[in-house]
Amino acid sequence: QKEVEQNSGPLSVPEGAIASLNCTYSDRGSQSFFWYRQYSGKSPELIMFIYSNGDKEDGRFTAQLNKASQYVSLLIRDSQPSDSATYLCAVNMGGFGNEKLTFGTGTRLTIIP
Amino acid sequence: DAGITQSPRHKVTETGTPVTLRCHQTENHRYMYWYRQDPGHGLRLIHYSYGVKDTDKGEVSDGYSVSRSKTEDFLLTLESATSSQTSVYFCATGGTRGQPQHFGDGTRLSIL
Questions:
Q1: Which residues is A48 bridged to in the sheet?
Q2: Which of B98, B100, B101 sits opposite A96 (nearest CB)?
Q3: Which of A6, A38, A43 to mutate to test the interface with B (most CBs of B within 10 A)?
Q4: Per-residue CA distances from A99 to A32, B18, B96 (Å)
Q5: Nearest CA in chain A to B91
Q6: The pLDDT of residue B2
């Protein structure tokens, strides 16, 4: 069974520090990787997506992908209380043409003021 | 704003009754998806559609049916609701060729 694994947390990080969220996936043929943020009682909101090995930066967010290790991470720099949320990792397993995502169960992040 | 509207936003109903949830999009996306979200399970795909009248099952499709008669509308039906179908239901669009999916605001469904 194709799986996406995340540490459920909670992960507590002081304000201003770097928060590091991790995700592993089981399908070596996966091509697309997504990070969503979900506030309590709200819908998932896309934060980052990455397709190629290496780092992709967008503002305070950096997504890192290592396909050989089947590992994708999200770094949040200068963490703010508003970053407190659950972060969902999603993977398009099986590559392009399989237009479905498999989600991890999410990591709950708390930024401590 | 991903142009996705879900209705109703909240519903309480009784076991054995039929329930239909509606997802309406304005972005003309080919792909539409229905997920349910439960504590400890994350988001799980129920059904998805890749065009008008073209649908397929996800990992938790038992007890659910879908229909898509127009590009903009994707309906999820619980023919005879059970308490195990109490959940938050999300519709999503997009996802073609590895592109991101975007989500509606969700429907909170309680079956008593």
A1: A35
A2: B98
A3: A43
A4: 10, 29, 6
A5: A43
A6: 67
